[in-house]
Backbone:
């Protein structure tokens, strides 16, 4: 497909073209549109009304893009306030503050909360709010009001523990939240270490194979009768 027009309208025009020719080319209708948060493309597709009034198109949001935006906003907030002292006399970033590691964790928890509650808006809201309280909890602030955890914000390792507490209708204290967080981080750290080790072993094996192949070629090139 050749596009004529501005680069900004290329995606929207392409989407309209694909929807408008789906019946002719593939004998099917696209009833769902997976977006990345940009409403322009979907609006153009919707306004073009490719299938008439008999078939409506539903817009779905890509959780990965929504999750990514959380990290983008937090990094921008950190960059905009670089060097500024907060009420406690410390900067926003740094060790024990809003570090890159903390931003990655919040982003992951945010995505987990959305995915685990995709059909439960109120549950999604509570799970997302729980991220704030989970990060805010500390020994000096161990009240059940401010220290809570929601099972859906964790990865597989600690999720079962949090779910058990929810099933028993028990309050997740600050100590429990820290335990789950520590267990969760340990599991993900081990997974990263295993992946790094496997990658290193693969690269070493590849280098060994290349070296052995090179040595065999050299032996063959200078063997008796080779000339």
Residues:
């Amino acid at each position: 497909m050749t596009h004529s027009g501005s680069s900004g309208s290329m995606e929207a025009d392409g989407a309209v073209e694909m929807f408008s020719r789906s019946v002719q080319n593939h004998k099917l209708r696209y009833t769902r549109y997976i977006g990345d948060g940009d409403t322009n493309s979907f609006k153009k597709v919707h306004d073009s009304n490719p299938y008439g009034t008999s078939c409506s198109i539903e817009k779905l949001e890509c959780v990965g893009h929504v999750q990514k935006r959380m990290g983008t906003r937090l990094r921008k907030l950190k960059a905009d306030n670089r060097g500024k002292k907060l009420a406690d006399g410390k900067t926003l970033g740094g060790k024990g503050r809003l570090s890159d590691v903390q931003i990655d964790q919040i982003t992951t928890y945010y995505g987990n909360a959305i995915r685990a509650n995709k059909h439960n808006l109120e549950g999604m809201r509570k799970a997302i709010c729980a991220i704030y309280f989970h990060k805010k909890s500390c020994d000096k602030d161990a009240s059940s009001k401010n220290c809570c955890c929601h099972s859906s914000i964790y990865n597989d390792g600690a999720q079962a523990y949090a779910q058990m507490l929810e099933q028993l209708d028990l309050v997740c204290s600050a100590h429990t939240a820290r335990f789950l967080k520590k267990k969760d981080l340990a599991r993900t750290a081990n997974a990263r270490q295993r992946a790094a080790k496997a990658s290193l072993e693969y690269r070493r094996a590849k280098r060994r194979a290349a070296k052995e192949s090179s040595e065999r070629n050299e032996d063959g090139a200078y063997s008796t009768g080779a000339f």
